[in-house]
Amino acid sequence: KSLTLCADAEQASVYAAHKIADIIKDRQNAGKQAVLGLATGITPISIYKELVRLHKNESLSFQNVITFNLDEYYPICPNNDQSYTYFMHNYLFGQIDIAPQNIHIPHTDCSLEEVDDYCKDYEAKIRSYGGLDLQLLGIGRNGHIGFNEPGSRFDSITRLVELHELTRRDAETSFGSLDNVPRQAISVGIDTICQAKKILLVALGARKSEIIHKALNTSISEDLPASFLQNFPQVEYVLDSDAAALIE
Ligand code: F6R
């Protein structure tokens, strides 16, 4: 497996941002669009900060970039500051030159009757662009990737999912109380993720050391969705020294 060990979170974030920038520039040089799968949460914040810096100071352009976010709570209003739509505009899209029509984030204001068709369309749209050139991933403390919680199938695609108790508790502080944390989400699937040409899984900090150790070493199982990545050679794990602490 491809492991990139960085001294600290700052170095890991800059490394990941530069990997993303390289793909954008390579595709630009080839006169093509770069299709990126993006994540939210604490982990990518510094990565997006570095991408914004590259845009402002080193003229990195996002005009050829198409994005698909991994997931969004269901239901949530896009204006709610806990929504991933708000997060992405705040940390990245509002500060770069990406065309608004190139941004895709699951919209979860559709009704329960509409949601299946909505998810199928989201999946089809990713595939209509020829799939993802790069998928950026964090990892949940229960091993989820996107909101593919334990029990998710290897062949799952974009769908409505139930959030795991630990995932909801990890979101409690930002929502103010556990009751305010949505119970469901729309998430792209394990299959959607694993079809990406390149996957960067970034884990930072001691709170991720145990799950990183398990994700890399346990046998592949639905109980730990990130373990499915062991099968795929295009995955690069970018870890800071705290997250890598338990790796033999
Ligand atoms: C978010 C996502 C989640 C997070 C994971 C880690 O879009 O897909 O899988 O990557 O929950 O979150 P943080 O980075 O907050 O530890």
Automatic annotation (TrEMBL):
Gene3D superfamilies: 3.40.50.1360. One of its GO terms (biological process) is carbohydrate metabolic process. It comes from Aequorivita ciconiae. Keywords: Hydrolase. This is Glucosamine-6-phosphate deaminase. Residues 8-230 form the Glucosamine/galactosamine-6-phosphate isomerase domain. Its EC number is 3.5.99.6. It comes from the Bacteria. SUPFAM superfamilies: NagB/RpiA/CoA transferase-like. InterPro entries: Glc/Gal-6P_isomerase (IPR006148), GlcN6P_deaminase-like (IPR052960), Glucosamine6P_isomerase (IPR004547), Glucosamine6P_isomerase_CS (IPR018321), NagB/RpiA_transferase-like (IPR037171). The keyword Cytoplasm does not apply. PROSITE patterns: GLC_GALNAC_ISOMERASE. GO terms for molecular function: glucosamine-6-phosphate deaminase activity. The keyword GTP-binding does not apply. Pfam families: Glucosamine_iso.
